[in-house]
Design a protein that fits this description.
Chain lengths: 402, 402
């Protein structure tokens, strides 16, 4: 399941070299029409540019030419897992991130509070974006749901979003969404998309019926929609795959989820850089590998806010000296995917990447940007090959063959 | 077993264009901390730089990002064989290089003369690095070993090293080493690592018992260790794969071994460039393909001798005009892997490569170096793709499809 079986076979456990992987979500961008410069090219990034000048640079492609990844596959690729072969349902990612008791055999789904009218038609798929606190209260209400022989857990995420985990015998995860994606129509009936998931449909239908009754007098959140059914991902841990004791540092729950799915320890932490970097510093002695996730750049890109993304990159740049002060043997700065502000969405463009270590060739990349890194010595490489690079630079991969 | 079946299907045998593949062992390097320049960048290489300016350049990755190859896989990749799928045990490589009568079904192992104390504990795993001539004499002594129904051959390599070949029915190669890797303990008992190799253990145990008796009065080489058991590699020949009559020119036996394993003719020749180039010139009319191996650069890198590696590269550069004088239709200069002097070991870094032919685009590479070639038109390519390039530039690959 990891990108190359040889990584596992050749990984050496007798090194204490540390690897820090800083993932700037949605890092890559495209030029602003008015200036011809991308977000990275517009930002003043003295520390990242210095890293690029001294390290090995390139562009990482999460899924290969032309394919745009979601956050799950994009992260799995960075962690060295084949992103096509290891799919995690969005519901499973959410459940992992919420810290629910979610284990092998369980099935999770995303739960959105919504508004339905008197005829049962969805009038607002997000229930007026109720505040997070209201979402928490409603999740408490839903704890009254009881389905025979099934354990049901519900936990609030942000605003109108929550997650549900079902535990019981014979639960498959090939179940369609009830979210109709448009308003003015009723929720879609759930259906099994493959044999073995019929029982999940029965259980989820029972859950939906009871939820409707429990929320009937609420406003605006008087119903729920379920989507993104997915089983607990059965992935090899990074310890098993690479011999790395790994810590995942991410303020946003879903990224703790994907980190947890590959066996990283995770701790709750704030979304802000200060909290994340302080956690890194405080736990630096305890782990071999650190995944640090920066979320807001992606949100700015998705909102089409070019200037905000530039400012967030500049703010991050000021934290780079704190990383360097830890003196990791290998420091990698990259993104999970590109989110060009002018596209307002994830994209397929490969992602600027720098590897800084004692064993890199300082290459021709003069700045940390899309065009700068395209002159680097790593070329355009699959994101799933990054972990082999990381392990090699940490001297954690043995020679293959005599 | 070759990297692409299409190479074989499309190779054309009606060309007489010649291909010279010059392999500079451990070619790639990393910058010296004091100068920021690699071995190749430090050396004065007017002839190689001119080749790079006029040819197609790139970086060859033996095993893909991050993986460090041994000499066997690195060479098989250069010859167009999938290096992961075609593994040759070190003992088999040695035996091939020694010119032993080694054929399909035989099993070879490396034999090291060692010193054991009165209690049978290994006190020196290399028997004081006895001179090569002494090693030869002791191999003559070991010719007295006789095992019923098995043919045993022993041949000296350098110093304390030798090779042994066993021929007989039912000999597998999944056998552990007797070399304990440390001193102060007895040799490890051999064991079969998989069913089918039990008979090899019996035969090798008989060999070891007789060797101990034959060498009992010798000093310091009073015992032998066996390691790296491997069967004769069953690889398609380069003639079969590519229609090439090939000559392997290598002073160091192991490289003649890997050349022989892919069906090249090999001849004993000195380690020095003069001997190797003289052999190339004298046999130039007789073959289509020439593999010329330069060993000492790798040894200098492994010894951490940056300056020596620089001087050896400069010495080699002076021989390039002799290659050009032969006017091969395709001249390729590359390495099997990188051996940066500052790492004192093989590494994963891709290897500078130039293809000179009438049909190359002179690209942006201004010099023959890691950074120079990273600006070239071949990009970072798998080493196993090189043979298709070589055949194409020799007009020996037909069009695919109508």
């Amino acid at each position: 399941m990891i990108s190359s079986q040889y990584t596992k076979e050749l990984c050496s456990r007798d090194s204490d070299a540390k690897i820090v992987l800083l993932v700037i979500d949605g890092l890559g961008g495209l030029p602003h029409p008015a200036t011809g410069k991308s977000e990275l090219e517009t930002a003043q990034l003295p520390n990242l540019d210095a890293l690029a000048k001294g390290g090995a640079c390139g562009l990482l492609s999460p899924l290969g030419a032309g394919f745009t990844p979601g956050s799950g596959p994009a992260h799995l690729a960075l962690f060295g897992y084949d992103p096509w072969q290891n799919q995690i349902g969005r519901g499973a990612l959410s459940a992992l991130g919420l810290g629910l008791d979610f284990a092998r055999g369980d099935v999770a789904a995303r739960l959105n509070f919504c508004t339905v009218d008197a005829e049962g038609r969805v009038s607002d798929r997000r229930a007026g974006r109720i505040p997070t606190e209201k979402g928490r209260q409603l999740c408490e209400v839903l704890k009254a749901v009881a389905v025979p022989e099934v354990e049901v857990q519900v936990a609030a995420e942000m605003e109108y979003r929550a997650g549900v985990v079902l535990r019981g015998a014979g639960l498959g995860d090939q179940v369609s969404d009830s979210d109709p994606q448009v308003t003015g129509v009723p929720p879609k009936p759930l259906s099994a998309l493959a044999p073995g998931s019929e029982r999940t449909v029965e259980v989820a239908d029972a859950f939906l019926a009871q939820a409707a009754a429990l929320l009937a007098d609420e406003h605006p959140a008087n119903m729920v929609l379920l989507r993104g059914f997915g089983r607990y991902p059965e992935l090899m841990s990074m310890d098993e795959a690479y011999g790395l004791k790994a810590l995942g540092i991410a303020g946003y729950p879903m990224y703790r989820g994907v980190a947890g799915a590959v066996g990283m320890d995770v701790e709750e932490v704030g979304w802000d850089l200060e909290s994340e970097f302080a956690l890194l510093e405080s736990r630096y002695a305890d782990y071999d590998f650190f995944y640090v996730h920066v979320k807001k750049t992606d949100s700015a890109g998705e909102d089409g806010d070019f200037d905000l993304k530039v400012r967030l990159l500049e703010e991050l740049d000021e934290y780079i000296p704190r990383l360097l002060a830890l003196q990791p043997e290998v420091l990698i700065v990259t993104g999970d995917h590109s989110t060009p502000s002018i596209m307002r969405s994830h994209s397929w463009h490969p992602v600027p990447t720098v590897i800084a270590s004692q064993w890199t060739l300082a290459d021709a990349a003069g700045e940390f940007s899309e065009r700068g890194c395209s002159a680097g010595s790593l070329g355009i490489a699959p994101a799933a090959s990054l972990m082999a690079h990381a392990l090699a630079h940490a001297r954690r991969l043995d020679k293959f063959g005599a």
